[in-house]
Amino acid sequence: MKPMNLSNSRISERTIMYKWSPFSRSEVLERAGVLPIVRGEGARVFDVDGRSYLDCHAGLWLVNAGYGRDEIAAAIAKQAHELAWFSSFEGYTNLPSTDLAERLVELMRPEGMAKIFFSSGGSDAAETALKMARMYWKLQGQGQRYKIIARERAYHGVSFGAMSATGMPANRNAYEPLVPGFRHAIAPDRYRHPALNESEAAAFFAADIERVILSEGPASVAAVIAEPIQGAGGVIIPPDGYLQRLQDICQNYGILLILDEVITGFGRTGEWFGARHWALQPDMITMAKGLTSGYLPLGATAVSQRVFDVFRQHEAKGGAFRHGNTYSGHPIACAAALANIDIIERENLVGNASQVGAHLLRALKPLEEHPMVGEVSGLGLIGRVQLTSDKTSRAALPAPLAIGDRIAAEMRRRGVIMRQLPYDILSFSPPLCLTMAEADEIAAVFGQAIDQVYGEIRKEL
Ligand code: PLP
Question: 336 and 250: one domain?
């Protein structure tokens, strides 16, 4: 028998009473409750009352290897017994962080990465990259190159630098003044520019990056930071050609290119890194999430030899990159990452993401016939269903009806966890071990939920 205080509703009450939940509104939690998840297996999680859910979002886009991996748990326990922590600062290291750095450099040979700087998560990884970018130019006597160009709807994290790069006003406005020197170009969302074909769209969006660079003055720009696929801003899969053009523009003006692969890394898109789809060789790559599949917090910033060499010369003259977190290179987190990468490799989860992702996309595509669905798109196991109140004008849904929330709630009632993003978008990003049958289940439940909600609200549209 389960103890009385172990029920969904009791945990929900205690959560609301004591815990300040991130990115949440108490009013909503009090009305709808908080769902306590206690166990996971593969792509499924279980609540306190014993109900199972297919987690179509891998938590927050991160449990790439899936839940309940004994191998990762054993690697964590072994490392905790041997050595819970030791410094990576000032002449020390620990074995897992050195092993992981080597493994990541090997893994990112095609992207041309040469050195790994560890941190504690995605925001820290972005912060590290942004500080490296500014210092890189200062060290070369070009301190006037301090500006960072990001895109609208980008999400790079919550710390001040990462937040200043983020292109979602709702995540920034309350914390102004922000870090000076950040500018935003338009997001490469083709759905918002229906008149353009793929190559026109690639040229148009890349031209907007160049427009911002030129209006700021290229000699004042340190770096462009970009997610290969913008995640939290609405799973924006850029048109083919756009990211190559972006890289060419950066090279043309001598500007550093930082790719934020916090979501797109470690197989999510059906390649090890998003960069590989477009054969990109950026100057830096930030990563977190799928690096450990969430088994422990870990971030990393990978840099090219070109970037590192500038710092190396500075160090030869007695300088240093004076930056690092206590937990940079945490041995237990690095041991978890190594076990996680072993699983992704051995089970070919990158290939699975590509195949099952294509199957899921095919299964969801017929939803585009639905009056309330504007577009279904995806790459590997990340994608979105774009809702609209008018398929021709692509108008937004009436906000007070909270239709996306209702569809997500209806799906959860039917055992599938989906995520509602701004701009009337429902996103999916399940564990990479998802099976074909589970993909079919997601598509079937999506269809049922949208029909159900449409039936309830169609007169109000
Ligand atoms: N970059 C991207 C693309 C992200 O999606 C996120 C988090 O969702 C971050 C950075 C920030 O990572 P963290 O929440 O680990 O600080």
Answer: yes
CA distance 206 to 276: 19
> Each residue of 445-457: pLDDT tens digit?
999 999 999 999 9
Residue of 57, 63, 118, 123 best suited for mutating to test ligand 1, as the one with most atoms within 8 Å of CB: 123
Mean pLDDT of 90-119: 98
Kindly report the pTM of this predicted structure: 0.98
Q: What's the residue count for the chain? A: 461
Is 170 a residue whose pLDDT tops 90? Answer: yes
Pairing of strands 44-47, 52-55: antiparallel
Ligand 1 atom nearest residue 264's Cα: 3
Give the model confidence (pLDDT) of 180-197 as tens digits: 999 999 999 999 999 999
- The structural domain count of the chain equals 2
Mutate to test the pocket of ligand 1, among 62, 119, 124, 155 (most ligand atoms within 8 A of CB): 155
Looking up residue 291, the CATH number of its domain turns out to be: 3.40.640.10
Q: Are residues 296 and 377 in the same domain?
A: no
Q: How far is the CA of 133 from the centre of ligand 1 (A)?
A: 19
Closest-lying ligand 1 atom to the alpha carbon of residue 126: 10
CATH number at residue 415: 3.90.1150.10
Q: Report which residue type is found at 316.
A: A
User: Which residues form the domain of 388?
Assistant: 35-68+348-460
Centre of ligand 1 to C-alpha 386, Å, is 22
Token code pair at residue 7: 């029920």
* Main-chain dihedrals φ then ψ at residue 225, nearest 5 degrees: -115, 135
| pLDDT tens profile 308-320 | 999 999 999 999 9
Torsion sign over Cα 106, 112, 118, 120: negative
With respect to residue 300, please indicate whether it lies within any of the assigned structural domains. yes
User: Looking at the structure, do residues 225 and 361 belong to the same domain, yes or no?
Assistant: no
Give 359's contacts (C-beta < 8 A, 6+ positions apart): 436, 439, 440
Residue 354 and residue 331 share a domain: no
Q: Pick from 279, 277, 409, 266: which is nearest to 343 by CA?
A: 266
Choose the residue to mutate in 227, 230, 263 for probing ligand 1, maximizing ligand atoms within 8 Å of C-beta.
263
409-438 confidence digits (pLDDT tens) = 999 999 999 999 999 999 999 999 999 999
Provide the β-strand partners of residue 417: 55
Determine whether the shortest distance from the Cβ of 261 to ligand 1 is under 6 A: no
CA distance 24 to 33: 12
For the cut 90, the answer to whether the pLDDT of residue 75 exceeds it is yes
pLDDT above 90 coverage of the chain, percent:
98
Cα separation, 330 vs 349, in Å, equals 25
